[in-house]
């Protein structure tokens, strides 16, 4: 039922934002309520707030003032709208016509068998196909960063895991709610296995860990070395899934993870790609 309501609010209701008032305000209210529910129940960062801002643009002044009395109510809104001036109507219609013409290619792409996602269809990027979740994976792969103080890379080396504030790591830790605050590093780490771990910013992050950079370490939940620079760091990937109720009662672990392999072999400050010597 929740999924059905969510699809209705995001696929049907937005068309009513272009309807006359007060229907447009009612549609905006439904969208805003749905997005606030998503803010309270998930960590989607800025995505929900962007939708809220867009929906709020359809709320009429009298309705906005009734809900939020501190918002000023213009005299024109109290006496009734006198209509938009002709020049503004001309600008609006011209811009609308331009977007309709430019939207031909994105619309054609929408019904194509080889549909493109996150692509632009003109040099000015006025129309495009975008979506933070254009595809949703059925499995959750997590990147785990480990470090060691040992000089030699032997089987007996003591590798310790860096703990992030939001992303899954410790299998016993309850998933945290951070929204509306945005954990930018954790957000990037979430998307990292969906693309490639060999990104410039990630190697720079690993180099900062090797330096025990205080500002970088403050972005983490815990530093396993208490400020001491590790000799080596490495990156491993794991397949995560939620533990069943029976598994949780037996082990106390909220996650079950399976190692997938080493994503980046051990690195030192002298062997970090892209680092100037």
Structure report:
There is one protein chain. The protein is built from 11 helices and 8 strands. The chain has helices spanning about 1-10, 25-40, 45-55, 60-65, 75-80, 85-100, 105-110, 185-190, 200-210, 215, 245-250, and strands spanning about 120, 130, 140-150, 160, 165, 220, 230-240, 255-265. The strands form 3 sheets. The protein has a 4-stranded antiparallel sheet with strand order 4-3-7-8. Strands 1-2 form a two-stranded antiparallel ribbon. A hairpin with a 7-residue loop joins strand 1 and strand 2 (about 130). The longest helix has 19 residues, at about 25-40. The mean pLDDT is about 85.
Low-confidence stretches: none
Helix amount: 25-40%
The sequence of SSEs as H and E is: HHHHHHHEEEEEHHHEEHE
| Strand runs, count | 8
Biggest sheet strand line-up: 4-3-7-8
Measured between the Cα atoms of the first and last residue, the distance is 58 Å
Query: Per the principal axes of the C-alpha atoms, what is the gross shape?
Result: elongated
Entry keywords:
about 280 residues, alpha+beta, 2 domains, 4-stranded antiparallel beta sheet, two-stranded antiparallel sheet, 11 helices, 8 strands, about 40% helix, elongated
In short:
By secondary structure, the chain is of the alpha+beta class. The chain has helices spanning 2-12, 23-41, 47-56, 61-67, 75-79, 86-102, 104-110, 184-191, 200-211, 214-217, 245-251; strands at residues 119-120, 128-129, 140-148, 160-161, 163-164, 220-222, 232-242, 255-267.
């Amino acid at each position: 039922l929740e999924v059905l309501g969510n699809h209705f609010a995001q696929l049907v209701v937005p068309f009513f934002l272009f309807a006359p008032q007060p229907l447009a305000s009612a549609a905006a209210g439904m969208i805003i309520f749905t997005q606030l529910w998503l803010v309270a129940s998930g960590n989607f960062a800025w995505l929900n707030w962007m939708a809220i801002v867009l929906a709020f643009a359809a709320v009429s002044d009298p309705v906005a003032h009734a809900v939020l009395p501190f918002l000023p109510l213009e005299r024109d809104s109290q006496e009734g709208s006198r209509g938009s001036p002709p020049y503004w109507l001309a600008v609006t219609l011209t811009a609308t016509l331009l977007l309709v013409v430019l939207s031909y290619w994105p619309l054609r792409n929408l019904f194509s068998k080889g549909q493109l996602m996150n692509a632009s269809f003109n040099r000015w990027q006025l129309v495009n196909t975008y979506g933070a979740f254009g595809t949703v994976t059925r499995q959750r792969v997590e990147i785990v960063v480990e470090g060691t103080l040992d000089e030699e890379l032997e089987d007996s080396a003591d590798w310790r895991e860096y703990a992030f504030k939001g992303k899954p790591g410790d299998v016993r830790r309850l998933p945290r709610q951070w929204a509306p605050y945005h954990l930018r590093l954790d957000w990037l780490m979430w998307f990292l296995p969906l693309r490639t771990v060999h990104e410039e910013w990630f190697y720079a992050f690993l180099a900062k860990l090797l330096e025990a950079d205080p500002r970088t370490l403050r972005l983490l939940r815990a530093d396993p070395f208490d400020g001491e620079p590790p000799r080596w760091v490495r990156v491993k990937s794991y397949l995560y899934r939620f533990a069943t109720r029976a598994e949780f009662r037996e082990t106390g672990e909220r996650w079950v993870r399976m190692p997938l392999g080493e994503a980046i072999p051990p690195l030192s400050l002298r062997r970090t790609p892209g680092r100037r010597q």
